[in-house]
Amino acid sequence: MNKGALALLVHGGTENWSPERWQSRFDDVCGDRRVLRLPDPALDPAEVHYAAVWKPAPGELAAFPNLRVIFNLGAGVDALMADSSLPNVPLVRVAVGDLTGRMTEYVVLHALMHHRQELYLRACQRERRWQPRSQWPASAISVGVMGLGTLGSDAAEVLARIGFRVAGWSRSARRIEGIECFYGAAQLEAFLRRTDMLVCLLPLTPDTRQVLNRGLFAKLNRNSPLGAPVLINAGRGGLQNEPDILSCLDDGTLGAASLDVFETEPLPPDSPFWTHPKVVLTPHNAADTDPDEISKYVAQQIERFEAGGALENVVDRERGY
């Protein structure tokens, strides 16, 4: 029996998102299933039952009349959800241990960077100044994690093991051992008031767009050894009001920021974020997707689905994640 083909639609522009690289991995794990890298002039759209995608153009997926499942190759599905022509089939998001571990590495790296005063120390190195400052313990810093899904929960647990005082906030109630959990609009302010360092790993939805704004930053705790609150955003660029971030860094409402994501990517060369002395900038690589792990994950899901099993990590389209 012919197996339905897997269409690969990858629009990335960086080395990790090379379509050829992804096709090589899928060819290795899909056995006798055809893997079709688009655009392919010889493609019969009716042959495609599955699609593995990253930032497909609006309308691309509507071309396949027999599509059964869409697999999003990255963690965020906001670009897909914005496509009004998206076929009404299950949309599966990536949730593998490799991606979770990479995000936790990023969050811990940047939390420690700000906690251990690395911006100041690197400035001292450049200026050849031997002027160490007093260093407080991790237990003096209260970290707040916005978004307690798979990524946020793991990061929160590791931060707590290091010794930070960790709390989390999510839209609905969560319970994580050793983590003080807040939820819903009614508990957001209490969560912010006790937070010295804010880590944002929220999904991008209509409710969360530009949630990282001056009004929110003004509610963060200002009485910590850090001197002013710190922002770490490795969620989505659309979560942040970028003019507010810049003005809050300039006037002291924020003391520093680590930003991995931006409203426009690649970040334009004239963006003030590139040279701002209080910003640590990374090129959306906090949790770079590993083609080896993700291709295996997709292939296994397809085999289980065709055998009558349930798909894992299906997106709730009403909630947007």
Number of domains: 2
Pattern of helices and strands: EHEEEHEHHEHEEHEHEHEEH
- Second-tier CATH architecture of the largest domain: 3-Layer(aba) Sandwich
What is the averaged pLDDT score?
94
Count every helix, treating DSSP H or I runs of 4 or more residues as helices. 9
Shape label: elongated
Structure notes:
This protein has 321 residues and is of the alpha/beta class. It folds into 2 domains: 5-94 and 289-306, NAD(P)-binding Rossmann-like Domain (Rossmann fold, 3-Layer(aba) Sandwich), CATH 3.40.50; 100-281, Rossmann fold (3-Layer(aba) Sandwich), CATH 3.40.50. It is built from 9 helices and 12 strands. The strands form 2 sheets. Strands 8-7-6-9-10-11-12 form a 7-stranded parallel beta sheet, sandwiched between helices. It has a 5-stranded parallel beta sheet with strand order 2-1-3-4-5, covered by helices on one side. Strand 4 (69-72), helix 2 and strand 5 (91-92) form a beta-alpha-beta unit. Helix 1 packs across helix 9 and helix 3 (97-115) crosses helix 5.
